[in-house]
Structures are given as C-alpha cells and as structure tokens.
C-alpha cells in the first residue's frame, strides 16, 4: 500500500507574504522596474491549466459584458445572450434551490427570526427544529468551527454513509471541506512530495486533477476510458500504463476514479469497480474516488450508483481491511446544486492513524470550511423524511430536478446524434455529454492556421456565432486523433440551445467542406 512513513517524513514550507499597500504600476513600466512580475511567480501556477474556466469561457464573459453595455451588440453579434454550458453550475442556469435547504439556512443566518411570532406561519415546524438543532451545535455561523467540521454534522454524514452503503462509518475519519475540490487539493498536497511522484487519472478527466498535479509539480499518469464501451475504463490496459510509468521513473502514489463521470457521464459497473480495487490493492496504490455526482443517475435500474467504499468493504477480508481509499462528495452537484456555498467532505478508509493526524494538521492550517457550506452538507445528507412537514415539497422538488435533467440529457444527445459529423454517448449520470466531432479536412487546416486544436477552434467559432459556451475536449484529454467537446445539459431552454447549435453546426460543415 502507500508508503505512509515516507509520506510523514515529507515536510513542506509554506511562505506567507503580507504586503504593504501595493503601489500602482503603469502599463508602460519596464518589467525590470517592477517589484513583482510574472517571471517571479511560482512556475507551477503558470503551468497549471483549467479549461472549464479557460480561454473560451473568458471570451464568453467579454461577450456578455458587451451585450449588457451596448444596446446594439445583439444585432452586431447575431445573438442576444450567452448560454453557459461550460461548467456544472446548476443555479446559474435556473435550477431552483431546494426550499427546505434555504429555509433552514435562512434561520441559521438570522437566528432572531426563530423566536418571532411570525416564524411559526412562515416556516414549517421541522425547519425551525432543524435550525435550532444546528445553532445549538454551531453557535454562530460567523464563528470558526472544528477544523474537521462541526461534530454533529460529521455524525450525520457518517449516518448517511452507513445507510447508503450498509457498512459502518466513523465521523472521526470524515473531513469537511470547502467543496470537494478543496479536499482533492489537500490530499494531493499531502501525498505528492517529489517531481517523480505521479497519480493515475482517467482520460478524459476533470481538469482539477491535472491542475492539482501541476501545482504540486507531479506527474499525470493517464489511463483511457473506452468511448465504444460507454466510457468504461480500459481495464486490460491498466497494467501497461503502470509499467510504462514506472519504467520512466514515476512513483505512482494514487489512482483517481470519477463515477458518475465528468466529463463523459458514465457510471461504473460493480464488475469494473472490483477490478479497479484489485488492481490498486495488488500494486499498493491509494484509491481516490470522486463521487460528487452520486445522485445524478439516469439509469438507476441498469446502472445504479455504487460507492467505492461499499465495493471495498464487500470484497475479500484482506482487501476490505487493507485497500486505502479516500472518497469525495459535495453539495455543488446533484439535486442540491449549491455551488456557491462551498460545502463538501471526504472520508478516509483504511488510512493509518498517524497519517490521519497529518490530514488533520493540514485542515487545521486552513482553520475550517465555510459554515454555510457545512450546513448545506448537513441538509443534503439528512433531508426531510416521510411524515415530516417539509417532506412532500422536498420530494416533489428533487423528483422534478431529476426528471428535468434526464429529459434534457436525452433530448440533447438525440439531437447531436442526428447531425452529420457528431456522435454522442447517452449520459448514465452526472451533468455532461461528451460528443465526438468528425470534422472535414478544411476545418483542421483552418484550426492549424489559427494555432488552435480543431476542437477548440470549433468551440470558439460556436461561441462567436451563437453565444453558446462549451469546452473543447482537448481541455479534458482524449484519445489521440479524436476530438470532442463537453457540454452541460443544465440550460433550461434546451430547444433554444438545440436550434442555435444545429444552425451553427450545419453552417460550419458547409463552410469547411
């Protein structure tokens, strides 16, 4: 398994600079005269890339500003709005917050409301009771909490995991974070101690992982997902990928698995998951399970969500007790969609106590995750139950979101598959489709002339002509010689999206045929 002793011997120096009032620099000032310039920055930060908020989304924001400031812009541009399909940001695109969540959050933010007579008519009884329970444990949401998170909330998370998986969970192995991304970053920082360290990541992958590896000056060890097999991992190729990395001097520390998948929308089968666990156990590799889309499931009968913890614990005793695992969850996705509150957690499974102490040290340095996010996690893992006053409304809202996402996903995939030069696997889960582009040679030539990969060239043209913002597949990684893009299916006006897209795609093929 992971060499924990070597991990513990690793020390990191964190420098904190508190600047005085910053002088202003003119654009014409020579670089040599500046107190700080880009050449003085950490090169790992300059190297890191994050396509989801990269060049195309930046251009989209510039176009949005133009539309807002110039009344004539819509006539000049040919569209009147930006459709952001580049990032899984549900509420930005109209997904309504769950009423129960927001009502409890309201009372925890302004506790004086609870004791006002009007509260009894404004808020259901279970909302008031839940807010009181949380405030009794938290005190004020403006105060620091325990660095691992509020104890009673971690207890609720443990109960949620036990109910989901049918196996015990310990709140002392659960760390709350400012979204799952912060948890991933913490584990990467803890684990990676040398430039020859590497982590196996799926291709296509969520760019958080390549960015985190770049920031820690570590290596990405890529294993491919098979598009022809509904984006299942190429299990036969894992041994070859590992052997090649080791032959190049890479010490593989962990393997990342994203299920349900981002950007491809796959959901791993138990058979695939067991094979991955056996591979990790055989080679003493820490398993990192990104499970933030676990409630975004569109084929629950044929491809349900199964957690890696449930799989590990169900296997032979030596694997169940020996395979190290860190699993991540978040309130940003699913039916919750509370991205801006920054709430999440990770659970440590089969991780030695002395290593857990170092995880706690890192959490302590960061003080605590946002209390609003912690409350969001509590509400997600412990929602209203049958018989509670808020249950019927809660269930109807969750069901409506689930059904709407499934319908939009199917509509969009079917629309893509009707167009020449596009093929698209239907999503089994998550919030994304990853269609494959088959573009004519002239498009490749034009992209090369523009200095862009052809998928990025296509996506930039789409934005400039329609206002639709998607992300090129090159930002996620893809099989050499193939080209894709990632789109969310969160936009509520999917028919409007499809109409704009179809018109552009048809015109694009005509232009470059």
From TrEMBL:
It holds the Pfam family Aminotran_1_2. Keywords: Aminotransferase, Pyridoxal phosphate, Transferase. Residues 123-489 form the Aminotransferase class I/classII large domain. The keyword Membrane does not apply. One of its GO terms (biological process) is L-alanine catabolic process. GO terms for molecular function: pyridoxal phosphate binding; transaminase activity. Its cofactor is pyridoxal 5'-phosphate. Homodimer. PANTHER family: ALANINE AMINOTRANSFERASE, ALANINE TRANSAMINASE. Belongs to the class-I pyridoxal-phosphate-dependent aminotransferase family. Alanine aminotransferase subfamily. This is Glutamate pyruvate transaminase. It comes from Puccinia triticina (isolate 1-1 / race 1 (BBBD)) (Brown leaf rust fungus).
């Amino acid at each position: 398994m992971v060499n924990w002793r070597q991990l513990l011997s690793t020390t990191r120096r964190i420098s904190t600079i508190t600047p005085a009032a910053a002088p202003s620099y003119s654009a014409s000032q020579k670089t040599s005269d500046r107190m700080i310039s880009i050449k003085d920055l950490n090169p790992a930060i300059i190297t890191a890339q994050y396509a989801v908020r990269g060049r195309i989304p930046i251009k989209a924001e510039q176009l949005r500003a133009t539309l807002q400031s110039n009344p004539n812009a819509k006539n000049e541009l040919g569209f009147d709005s930006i459709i952001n399909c580049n990032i899984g940001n549900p509420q930005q695109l109209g997904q309504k917050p769950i009423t129960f969540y927001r009502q409890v959050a309201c009372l925890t933010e302004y506790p004086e409301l609870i004791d006002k007579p009007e509260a009894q008519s404004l808020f259901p009884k279970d909302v008031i009771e839940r807010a009181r329970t949380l405030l009794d444990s938290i005190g004020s949401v403006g105060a620091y909490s325990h660095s691992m998170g509020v104890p009673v909330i971690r207890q609720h998370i443990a109960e949620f995991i036990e109910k989901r998986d049918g196996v015990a969970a310990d709140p002392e192995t659960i760390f709350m974070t400012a979204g799952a991304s912060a948890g991933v970053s913490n584990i990467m920082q803890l684990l990676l101690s040398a430039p020859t360290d590497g982590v196996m990541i799926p291709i296509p992958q969520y760019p958080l992982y390549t960015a985190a590896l770049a920031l820690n000056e570590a290596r990405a060890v890529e294993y491919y997902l098979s598009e022809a097999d509904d984006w299942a991992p190429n299990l036969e190729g894992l041994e070859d990928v590992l052997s090649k990395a080791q032959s190049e001097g890479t010490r593989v520390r962990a393997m990342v698995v994203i299920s349900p998948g981002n950007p491809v929308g796959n959901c791993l089968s138990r058979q695939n998951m067991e094979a991955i666990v056996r591979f990790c156990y055989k080679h003493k590799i820490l398993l990192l399970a990104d499970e933030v889309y676990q409630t975004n499931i569109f084929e629950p009968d044929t491809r349900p969500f199964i957690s890696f913890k449930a799989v590990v614990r169900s296997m032979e005793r030596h694997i169940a007790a020996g395979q190290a695992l860190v699993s991540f969850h978040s309130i940003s996705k699913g039916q919750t969609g509370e991205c801006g509150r920054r709430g999440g957690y990770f659970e440590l499974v089969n991780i030695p106590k002395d290593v857990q102490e170092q995880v706690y040290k890192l959490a302590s340095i960061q003080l605590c995750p946002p209390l609003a996010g912690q409350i969001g996690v509590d509400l997600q893992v412990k929602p209203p139950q049958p018989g509670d006053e808020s249950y019927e409304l809660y269930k109807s809202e969750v069901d409506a979101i689930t059904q709407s996402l499934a319908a939009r996903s199917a509509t969009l995939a079917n629309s893509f598959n009707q167009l020449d030069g596009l093929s698209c696997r239907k999503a089994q889960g998550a919030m994304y489709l990853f269609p494959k582009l088959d573009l004519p040679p002239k498009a490749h030539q034009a992209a090369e002339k523009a200095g862009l990969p052809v998928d990025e060239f296509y996506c930039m043209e789409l934005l400039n002509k329609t206002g639709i913002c998607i992300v090129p597949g090159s930002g996620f990684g893809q099989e050499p010689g193939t080209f894709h893009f990632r789109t969310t299916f969160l936009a509520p006006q999917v028919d409007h999206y499809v109409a704009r897209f179809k018109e552009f795609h048809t015109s694009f093929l005509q232009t470059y045929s």
